[in-house]
Amino acid sequence: MSIRENEIRSRRFEVDEMRRKIRDLAELKAQLESSLDRLSDAGAGGRARGSSDDRRETLMRSLREIEREIRQTRDALNVSREQIEREESVHNGYDRIPVAIGSRRGRGQVEHIRIVRNQRS
Asked: How far apart are the C-alpha atoms of 45 and 33, rounded to whole Å?
């Protein structure tokens, strides 16, 4: 396996990790939103008002932080995807048709073989 293939493989791993992180953050965001909804529904309860307001403020701060982190991770994910597609478009010195991430890679390899054969003849 060449150095370039190792780099592509490590970038794919990074992309998978970013996808997992986004999924986990989205689940956490949904849980915080449901907690915030429950807190606002139970706001008229018999508890002290100050603790409810503090909790609501803490949840809102956490939600903003999670949304910011999701945006940053999505931006990094898009950059990594573009880098992978660029690295896959030039492989072993031959121009290849870029293969979209998540699609079947065999189709791109078949196209690559066809292009190389045409270049040689």
From this structure: 19
